[in-house]
Amino acid sequence: MKKENGRVIFETEDELPITAVSSASTEFNKTGSWKYLEPYYENLTPPCINKCLTGQDIVTQLRLTEEGRFAEAVQVLYQANPFPSITGRVCPHPCEQPCNRKAYGGGITIRAIEHFLGDYAATHHVMPPAASPNGKAIAVIGSGPAGLSAAFFLSLLGYSITVFEALQWIGGLLRTGIPSYRLPKYVVDDEVQKLRDLGVQFEMNKRMGKNLHLSELGNFSATLLAIGRGASMKLGLPAEEHDDVWNGIDLLQKINVGEPLTIGPKVVVIGGGNTAIDCARSLLRLGCEPKIIYRRTKAEMPAFKDEVKQTLEEEIPIDYLIAPMKLIEENGKLIAIECLKTRLGEKDESGRQRPVPIEGSNFSIPCDAVVKALGEKLDGCGLPETLKFDREKIIIENGYRTSHPGIFSCGDCANGEGTVGDAIRHGREASLAIHASLLEMPYAPSLIPTRQGVNPEIAKFKQFNLAYFQKSAPPTLQALQPNERIYGFQEIESGLARNEAMREAARCFKCGTCTMCDNCRVFCPDMAIRPKRDRHSYEINYDYCKGCGVCVEECPRGAIHLRKVDVGN
Amino acid sequence: MEQALREEKALLLSGNQAAAYGAYLSRVQVIAAYPITPQTTIIETLADIMTKADWKHKFINVESEHSAMACCIGASMGGVRAYTATSAQGLALMHELLHWASGARLPIVLVNVNRAMAPGWSIWSDQNDSLSQRDTGWIQLYCESPQEVLDTVIQGFMVAEKVNVPVMVVEDAFILSHTSEVVELPDQAVIDRMLPPRAPAFRLDMEQPAAFGGLLGPEYYQEVRAKLHKAMEEAGRVLVNVDALWQKNFGRSYGIVEPYRCEDADLVLVTSGAISSTSKIVIDQLRRQGRKIGRLKIKLFRPFPFQEIQRLLGDVPKVAIIDRNCSYGHHGIFFQEIKSALYGSKKGDRPKLYGYILGLGGRDVTINTLRQVIDLTSERDEPDPETIWVK
Amino acid sequence: MALTTFTPKPNFDLLKVEDVSSPGHLACPGCGIMPAYRTALQVLGKNTIIVAPACCFAVVDGPFPYSAAGVPFMHCAFETAAASAAGVRAALEVLGRDDTNVVAWAGDGGTFDIGLQALSASAERNEDMIYVCYDNEAYMNTGIQRSSATPRMAWTTTTPQQAPKIEYKKDLGGIMAAHRIPYFATASLAHPEDMMAKFRKAKELRGFRMIHYFCPCPTGWKTDARYMVKLDRLAVQTKVFPLYEVFGGRRYVLNVASEGLPVSEYLKIQGRFSHLQPEDIKLIQQEVNDNYEELLAKVDHSNRQRSNDT
Predict the structure, then answer these.
(1) Rounded to two decimals, what is the model's pTM?
(2) Of the residues B205, B221, B250, which one is the last residue of a structural domain?
(3) CB-CB under 8 Å, C2 with A131
(4) B185: domain CATH number?
(5) Beta strand C183-188 with C208-214: parallel, antiparallel or unpaired?
(6) Structural domain for B356, as ranges
């Protein structure tokens, strides 16, 4: 008796057993030849990840959070975002908007989990793995989120980093712009300390063109400008320089750093962005009676929706379709602002309808002060002449390079999108760009390593097998009630408890992502599925797979797909 | 003999009791049986005497003969010595399983008490039940006395386990099954030497897992069945050796066929089962009258002893064959078998074969019945084309 | 950049052990036999003997000289699974191998129909075995003929659409409970943990234990192979095949509360029910409801008995 490819061959009759004794394995029989369809594994892109401003691997974070492996979840976060305790509080979380769970009990509160993980990282001092120094130094100008993000990633790449900050406080808008009820100052302190722990040096009170010049930066292999947009837009009205007329960001800085302040009590805040909202709500907490006027309608307000909602909860009036016309003084003191009503006209280049003043609709709003929160632009003073920039932004090319050799730029000043999340992503990408440049390698926009090989197709609800999920609602986020919060700057949201975070992470579908749930292997009638050696994924033995498609049907989250097999004729 | 009885080396046993003692002395390990008249006293006796067995065993009171054989097959497949007994309808119900047992080459021993098939109901002896199982691949041994039944059960295991073919030991209903005579019990120690614990050729073995009895395709089936056929042939030779060993140890021999005063006979009566004993008396009577008449008892029906038949009957002018059975639309079954065995055995004259069917459904076969057979044979120069049904 | 690698914990708790059985077996795509067999063997281990009568599994295991089972496997006559297994058990008992699991693995034909006599007898004798009936509700191996496990109104080749089966499906659980066997349980592929738990219980108990497994058969039920598990899930969710256990023939436990989805959800994905009219579906729904009510009543009764006892 001999075997050929597992097939038993009896060479003589004597070799045949006396009865039908079958002791050879059926493995010789390659049943894979039966199939005309074959399954394959391919992770699809979860909608949250597609929308994440910083580009985090949210699903992996949640998988680890679900298992209580918070430190590892933080490490995954660090691959894209060094400051989860900040973004977990202030990011507008566009990731949550397309969540597939919305159709099955309620979307996942991704930001709240990030908030939890950020706080966990801070309280447990979760640090990214230290890099060995590469001997090169890089100067980062500006300590806002973009600069800090770049400092973080560049130090993980082995560079020694010095951050130069024009003010006496580190953090840029994180410290001077965002009110404490949204982002407590200790959170920023903790994140700055994390950078110090990574070896990042900070030099305060160093303003470009004033006491910091390019010539002083010769020792640095590269310089990254992340100076944000420090100049406020102007109303273009007479008496705009009156003492009772405030720039929103200046006002916020005073409030946030705790400088003495005399304003109000009646304050009109002009604008519809986050600065306007922050100013109005901060003023309310200082005992003022703020009122917001905006020349468009609520729908066009660029402020975060949740912020607007909370503003209204706090009973701060927002008057829409009003444009300021004139500041009215009496005895050197501002007493009112004269306005015109507007209507919405043609769309402008931003896609929003342009407000058109209605002639003769003049009216006055009595007030003691006016805050201009009309948006910010680049403060170009002090920038070297060799650097190309316009009134909005520093001009950058592919790879975050400015027109000046060796100088890179990122964040708001380089046409960032204005959110903290965008600034962080800019910081990361710019640091990779600098790194590539110093290695004289081409710059490729970074991808999160764990998401490589993932199909960019967005995983859809209809691809999931709901039998494996319970319909369940998200946790109720604990927040101060409006009447509790308007008397101080106490943080409004208190974040999730450990168990809540785990439960909520478990509720996530992990859209389009194989989680090794083992359904496919358990149900495969042909034992054709087994985990790969790395135990991160499965492999299909096409020699035996009959193409029944049970694995595809029973994959809870749409990570297995069927394709036709060319069976010829 | 009295001495032997006193020392319990011999017992007054019916054929059925002997069948039970034969199993006991074979140290059977699993018995699965279902009661049917006239087999019942076999399993009753066994149920009783197995309580004295000092080896591990199991007696399963199944719900049918069908399951009895299924249990035996399972047990035998598990590697132990399995035994059952039945009769008539019970054997017929087992039919499918008889094929399973032989096809799986399992050395099961079954005692069948020959009983006529219904309808109408009959509990009395004839051979149609066992002979209907002719082609199931079982060795068939027909006995003529309780002693032979006991000995043959043990011999049956010896043969079966040597050639991996199941054995059916056959005895006549009531005439043997319920009639007692003194039966010598072979010494257990000697039996144990002759029949050591079963060492199966294969079994359900966790260390060497295999499937038994799976789909056997046309490319193999015939060759595997040819091996069963060869094993059957081998069984005859093995039985001859076993019988010789028996003769040596116990002074008893049965042969696979037993000629009685056949030398110089011009007429030989062919018998099987209990009639063989009666026929000896008839032969003796006729020999005293100077008639050259002999008798050939056929013990081994499967494998059929062609050579012995040819050797012993080839030169006899007339052969009268007694069939306590009928293959309806043909002849008596022994008649057919002997005829086919003699056909082509030699050139020239072959014996004239006279077929008689008698004793069906338990009708008494007396000395007179047999003399009638001999007379009918002597009277005719040529056999009738039809088998004669003797009253 | 030094990036952390991490290993999300794979959910291997369910089936940790290596497979005993081999691929290359002859089951149709999407057949439920092997997944259940694998599940059973993962619990029972290699110290197991399988006894299988004529049924799909006898073919699935492979032709001579091949076998996918990985453990000793005895083919037996169609009607003899329980009797043959009893014989095997007897041999093991004699040989002192009481630790070996003897598993009769038979289809619905070999259990509900032709094998019922031997089954009943083995159950009555409380033979020490696990009897698994994989019920695919017809003679599938011979090409989809009606059995007494075929549900009412179903199409088979011997109950064509013009004359579908009008008789009830035999209540196997009721029959076995009436034998007062130590353990009877129904099992579904859609609930592998439950199935494993039941095999574990069966393994730990002695005497006659039965698992009635609702075995999806896409070929015979005329549906897509990929619905293998879905069919079983829907059967549980629609109360067509509730998951329960019976201890000692008297104490009923419901394992999975059926969600009460309408039976049409289950019926509509199967070609064998494609001829049904709304009134037929109503009839089936009524029968399913009645059966489930009866089961719940037995469960309630058991619970009351127990609370009375304590």
Answers:
(1) 0.90
(2) B250
(3) yes
(4) 3.40.50.970
(5) parallel
(6) 257-389
